[in-house]
Amino acid sequence: MTTTPETARGVKNLLDPGFELTLRPMRYPDFYERYRDAIKNTWTVEEVDLHSDVADLAKLTPGEQHLIGRLVAFFATGDSIVSNNLVLTLYKHINSPEARLYLSRQLFEEAVHVQFYLTLLDTYLPDPVDRAAAFAAVEEIPSIREKAQFCFRWMANFDGQGAEKIDQLETHEDRRNFLLNLICFAACIEGLFFYGAFAYVYWFRSRGLLHGLATGTNWVFRDETMHMSFAFDVVDTVRKEDPGLFDERLQQEVTDMLREAVEAELQFARDLCGDGLPGMNTESMRAYLECVADQRLARLGFPPVYGSQNPFSFMELQGVQELTNFFERRPSAYQVAVEGSVALDEEF
């Protein structure tokens, strides 16, 4: 038999232990194309103009100001949890140099998001005491602390929070725990917590307020949609290579995870909305979150559980609208040529 580079190296699955270094022959070219697409989407925080937001903040009611304060406090820490999991877990255990190229790019994008949220805090909360309280949100604000604790519970074996850290995926149970971490990361943090936060931003935008916040969020929205899509592609690849992992137990665990995520995000909504604001209240947010959770379950090949409809018309065309904004409104912002197209997740 003729020995090829592929047979000489041995065919490995995506979650096999080790640290594959060779890009040729390329085992997962789709991951490499995602990396190339991500490079085309470069933006910087300096492009976001927040000056008009300062005047808008003064127009808000006390309830709306409370909502914005809580929202930027969540933003200040949310992407830091994502970034830590990227470095400590995903990069380490997804054994594909093509995928690690994309994860390296994603880590850069998460750093830009953190910088954007830092700029938001500096602009929206000029008082140093208020800013310090926002940065301490995970410890000091119960509704944000509950979301952080949810993340740590479902990612515990890999982030060192309350459980022995797993260094290699040696067993079936190790790979199952890794999948739960990845699905929590994609479906619950990127795909539910941040999508809930985006809805508050676009509610303000629908009323002609906080355009700077909306502009930066547009670009974060696009990035996060691509991050989530990549993670689901990894799940699809694992499903093909190790279908035995996707049993009734995993389906039940993922369903329970999303139910728990919806409840954590609803607690946050109660904190933000209080007794309700015009066009935004806990019940409408519940329907929206349940609708999004069903979409995440469907993308994973699991049955939906809620059957709720999206009550927010301002979210329905967000993906299409942002594609137009990014590639047509600011073409002078690029240092690299933009070719082809980027397919965004149409699920809001």
TrEMBL record:
Highest taxon, organism lineage: Bacteria
Keywords: Deoxyribonucleotide synthesis, Iron, Membrane, Metal-binding, Oxidoreductase, Transmembrane, Transmembrane helix
EC number: 1.17.4.1
Enzyme class of the recorded protein, top EC level: oxidoreductase
Reactions performed catalytically: a 2'-deoxyribonucleoside 5'-diphosphate + [thioredoxin]-disulfide + H2O = a ribonucleoside 5'-diphosphate + [thioredoxin]-dithiol
Annotated transmembrane regions: 178-203
Cofactor note: Binds 2 iron ions per subunit.
Cofactor(s), by name: Fe cation
Role, per record: Provides the precursors necessary for DNA synthesis. Catalyzes the biosynthesis of deoxyribonucleotides from the corresponding ribonucleotides.
Family: Belongs to the ribonucleoside diphosphate reductase small chain family.
Assembly mode: Tetramer of two alpha and two beta subunits.
Protein name: Ribonucleoside-diphosphate reductase subunit beta
